[in-house]
Amino acid sequence: MVMAFVLIKLGTGEHLSFAKSAKEEIAKIKGVAKVYGVFGRYDLVAHVEASTLEELSRIITDKIRAIAGVSATESLIIGF
Is the dihedral angle over the CA atoms 42, 71, 59, 27 positive or is it negative? Predict the structure, then answer.
């Protein structure tokens, strides 16, 4: 199993309610174990689990980045 923390930036100037709706949409994606709203450089952190690196890549690029308002992601793949 491949696991990663995906750091997610949302568009600038958005309201907190927008961040909450983006968080809810991301949480519905198969493979996303948990999503946290955070303060700092990023707005959300998603814990993602997949069976292969290719599947993890598809979840991030095809599903998470497709959510309205997601402007950037950075992935921290768990190594040990």
Answer: positive
Q: In a 10 Å sphere around its CB, with 0-12 CB exposed, 13-18 middle and 19+ buried, how is residue 49 labelled?
A: middle
Q: pLDDT tens digits for 38-49?
A: 999 999 999 999
Residue with tokens 């996303």: 32
User: Could you give the CA distance from residue 65 to residue 26 in angstroms, rounded to a whole number?
Assistant: 9
> Does 13 map to a domain?
yes
Beta strand pairing call for 70-77 and 2-10: antiparallel
Domain span holding position 23: 2-30+46-77
Question: Domain tally for the chain?
Answer: 1
CA distance 43 to 17: 12
